[in-house]
Amino acid sequence: METYVYKNRKKLRCGYTTGSCAAAAAKAAVIKLLSGKTVETVELMTPKGTLLTLAVQERTSGEHEICYAVQKDSGDDPDVTKGIMIYAKVKKTAQGITIDGGEGIGRVTKAGLACAVGEPAINPVPREMIAQAAVSVCQQLGYKGGLWIEISAPEGKKLAQRTFNPRLGIVDGISILGTSGIVEPMSEAALIDTIKAEMNIRKASGEQYILVTPGNYGEAFAKIHQRLQVADSVKCSNYLGEALDYAVEVGFKGLLLVGHMGKIVKVAGGIMNTHSRYADCRMEIIAAHSAMQGAEREIVRQIMACVTVDEAMAILLQHNLLVRTIESIIDKIDFYLQARVPETFVIGAVVFSNQYGLLGQTKAAERLINLIVQQEEEQS
């Protein structure tokens, strides 16, 4: 497809989702099953309103069962499913449209996702796209009976290990996804949706307090807070603001944020998307707080010239300013976190450095640590 978006001044080609592939393959298979006509392309209107013309490949053809496939094209998005084949096998039934998952399509094992436990991981919008594509052909050809449609992706089980599915409790395959039918390169929405999905699972399992981290924070923190099951945290990447908002929306009572000072220091500037392309004011914040604690102009200048937070920490330590400056930064982090959530929501943060270990934590952090540990013990 020839649709483009611009990201960071680069022209990037859009692709189409696994949901679009499944719907197009199903449409081609139903045409063949009901009319005997072999098709090489099918048209598919996506939920976004983009009309796709997708090439299809016939895999098997028999009197009672047809299987067609569409190759996934993610455009310029670095999607692990790029290039895989999505298959749709169809056969006649007495009535209704039944959609199932076959080889390489994951099965849901945890509550809280868009699909119920035990169902194939074919999300509601793709499921509706598949059904609509099949029904439209039935109506055109005057067919009054039902259809059984099985979606499969033979490479899916292997590829699933490179997706979030194992963390979400989706086993043995990939998910059929897409709310718009179109893949926009480097989609932030897709990652945020994954964060929300993981939070839904935690809430459905009975969790009231949640541990959130920007990413893999290494062994340093595990050694500091051995009581917490750090591997079970929800990874929010750079999307702290969205994670906080959704934690409140879905009904959690509190959230503990644990992260490296290199990212979390930005929160002291009110920044809730910590990606460097949006804001990188680490040294400005550290320099300003050091000045408030008495740092002379030359020290401030040296901090502003630093590349890493640990480098700035070394300068502060050298001049006996580290503890006071960190306390000042932690207070401001607490201020902005509190401002983001309702008063009844318990919010706290623990900040560390790989080189210097635990740097500090906000007022509610210890309470949240105790609540999360108690919650883990009750669920174990």
Structure write-up:
- This protein is an alpha/beta fold.
- The chain has two domains: about 5-185, CbiD-like, CATH 3.30.2110; about 195-380, no CATH class.
- It has helices at about 20-35, 125-140, 155-160, 165-170, 190-205, 220-225, 240-250, 260-265, 280-290, 295-305, 310-320, 320-340, 365-380, and strands at about 5, 10-15, 15, 40-45, 50-55, 55-60, 65-70, 85-95, 95-100, 105-110, 145-150, 170, 180-185, 210-215, 235, 255-260, 345-355, 355-360.
- A hairpin with a 2-residue loop joins strand 1 and strand 2 (about 10-15).
- Helix 5 packs parallel to helix 7 (about 240-250) and helix 10 (about 295-305) packs antiparallel against helix 11.
- The mean pLDDT is about 90.
